[in-house]
Amino acid sequence: MPERCPLFAGLSPEQYQSALRLLSAQEKSHARGEILKSAPDPLPAFGLVLEGGVAVSMEDIDGREMLLNHVGPGQTFGEALCYLEETAPLIITAVADSRVLWLRCGGLKTPGNDELRQALRLRFTAMLARRTLRMNDRIQILARGSIREKLNAFLTECVRDAGGLCFSVPFDRAGMAAYLGVDRSALSRELSHMRQEGLLTYHKNTFALQMQLTKGG
Amino acid sequence: MPERCPLFAGLSPEQYQSALRLLSAQEKSHARGEILKSAPDPLPAFGLVLEGGVAVSMEDIDGREMLLNHVGPGQTFGEALCYLEETAPLIITAVADSRVLWLRCGGLKTPGNDELRQALRLRFTAMLARRTLRMNDRIQILARGSIREKLNAFLTECVRDAGGLCFSVPFDRAGMAAYLGVDRSALSRELSHMRQEGLLTYHKNTFALQMQLTKGG
DNA sequence: ATATGCCTGTTGCAATTGCAACAATTATGG
DNA sequence: CCATAATTGTTGCAATTGCAACAGGCATAT
Fold first, then answer.
1. Are residues B16 and B71 in the same domain?
2. DSSP character for B206?
3. Given pLDDT bands bounded at 50, 70 and 90, which one contains residue A61?
């Protein structure tokens, strides 16, 4: 399963085992609802989700919790924080019973020159770069004015990721609303309107777009 | 001046010269309004702003331009895109007469093991990691509901960066509105209200907070 | 089967916001 | 110094949105 992570993709079994050693890998199980990191904690290792799902949120200045990202199988969380060995008021929670492979950055930073270490360094940096680009997309969604526009942008991105007009989102309505930065009931309302207009159908967290919502698809 | 960039901070003059060579550094001047990269272009080098300022925006699905970031002296732009050698619909514009040091990632990715190269790799990765954390803050601002809340969060961050209650922002009102994802006139209105309430004073792009806007300062 | 709790949809209402148009103020260029 | 452009502030109005409260559906546990 970890081969799905770009950090390990394409490694031979021996290389993979060496990589695990280099990164002090430790697999752990976490029950749904378990807090993997609370706001003031540091993060000694970053996580690769093997199974289940994890939410990254941030403690609001007013103490409320604000959803930053959902991390599914094959995806990672906390690399930036772990690499910098800094603290940030991030909260990480298991949103489903999950297995997580915990990895340490230390081995990437020590001076060794072996081929594997160099490859992992490149891959790690590429992961961060890719995350940066994805966050640009997220910002673009949030900066839009209306709920309709946010939904268009969000669903379009889902279509792109899924490679088809039918897909599931890893959120319930409340989570989706938090992710888009809108009120939950207002989101339900807008989704209803869009369904009435024949733009899409949905059931729970599964959506099916009837056509491209945006021009230039 | 480039010493202000974490990529070069603390290097000896000789190391610095070697680093410039390694990164194929080229300094260029750009007039205000010049487009450094339009939406479909690739980005063969990333930029370190020496003087002036640069705006990174993104082509909206509807073709409108959406402000993602402002880059001031000592800061960099385009590292992620350049490192991945991918294309993304980012638009980069000089918002003032500027001098930019253009740097290439190639030298970081080739296998060499010399000390300087390793140091630059570490620093480059750290830069990306830091950017990731800053983008989290930005997302947190944008995800807030009301203009008042966005302003509180934005101004609080400015105070933190400036280290004092008085600071300038690198935007005019229109840019600030775009950065916060709100209407320009609505932003002016809200700022007026806050001034009337005695929370702050401002003139053009200079602000002075009267006190911490948020509890727990 | 029934009860309980969680998630989702609905709706009225008040407040906020975007929009547009215009006034006022400040830069810019000749 | 004047003319012109650019930026900022103001305001009325309509539309969107958040809020709150509630109803129905679905799942789980007993």
1. yes
2. E
3. low
